[in-house]
Automatic annotation (TrEMBL), chains A, B:
Coiled-coil region list: none
Protein name: Sporulation protein YlmC with PRC-barrel domain
Gene3D superfamilies: PRC-barrel domain
Top-level taxon: Bacteria
Domain PRC-barrel per the UniProt entry, residue ranges: 11-85
InterPro entries the UniProt entry points to: PRC-brl_dom (IPR027275), PRC_barrel-like_sf (IPR011033)
Signal peptide stretch: none
Length: 122, 122
């Protein structure tokens, strides 16, 4: 395995995927499942967090805007400022609903929910 | 496996990684090895293309700016406008030289070589 999965400024998608996600109370929320990239601009559109399910069945996916994630060295994971209750109310999809990610109305709801600037600009 | 690895506008890093890269003459140049993301901005800094080597030893890595890659459905791979000779002269590193990717002078040379706008702006 190459050593360049992370530098001071860059991180490999492989290293992000599989990383645990916690909230500021230290509760485990899920795991980064996949990085979704905007084909045109090359910006990370979402870090999709998976949670629940068993052997890949029944999992739910939360598209998290990149800027919601802060890496915490102590927890060796990402921290998002989100209670479990807030997470329950956040935009989610399951594996049969992947088309949500190409629906601008859904995407706008995601960014509105997290108060983030959409990757496609304002 | 979830179905949302690709939508009309987004693509999963997992789907990009492992994809073959060709030049416009149809010659196989290498394979996308890893997507490197700028931690601060969430922009894809490079699609690192690997080539050569055997079982991971002796491989060389080319950091390709995202905008150099065009997906070609017929070849089921990315096409870059680069002859094999140009590829030989392009910035490269091996697995012991990963620090190049956090060296702005090296990075500038990469973007100058491909004539691309650096992900950190002008």
């Amino acid at each position: 395995m190459a050593h360049y999965h992370e530098t001071s400024t860059l991180i490999g998608a492989d290293k992000v995927e599989g990383t645990d996600v916690y909230n500021t109370a230290g509760e485990h929320l899920g795991t980064i499942h996949e990085i979704m990239i905007d084909k045109t601009s090359g910006k990370v559109a979402y870090a999709v967090m998976s949670f629940g399910g068993f052997l890949g069945m029944g999992e739910k996916y939360h598209p998290l805007p990149w800027s919601t994630l802060t890496y915490d060295v102590n927890q060796a994971g990402y921290v998002v400022n989100l209670s479990k209750q807030q997470l329950q109310d956040a935009p989610v999809f399951d594996e049969d609903e992947e088309t949500f990610l190409s629906d601008r109305a859904y995407e706008k709801r995601v960014h509105d929910y997290y108060g983030t600037t959409p990757y496609w600009g304002l």
